[in-house]
Amino acid sequence: MRYSLGGGFRRDRLSLDLTLAYDQRSGSYYTYGPDYVDPVRETTTAYRALFTVAYRP
User: Fold this and answer.
1) What is the pLDDT of residues 11-57, one digit of tens each?
2) CA-to-CA distance for 29 and 12, rounded, in angstroms?
């Protein structure tokens, strides 16, 4: 599941942008054969942000 949100502001010489992202992944795998062990269940969550400033002289 992935969500992202962004917005910005711009004038003649200056612009600002902000982006936020949320990402969650789940999965399972076997470290050995399925006859010997239960599967490993794994969930990874990541939060990311990007802020950009631009100045045009």
Assistant:
1) 999 999 999 999 999 999 999 999 999 999 999 999 999 999 999 99
2) 53
Cα–Cα distance between 46 and 27 in angstroms, integer? Answer: 15
* C-alpha span between 51 and 40 (Å, rounded): 36
- pTM of the complete model: 0.70
Residues with Cβ within 8 Å of residue 8, at least 6 apart in sequence: 15, 16, 17, 18
Record the tokens describing residue 39, joined without a space: 């599967």
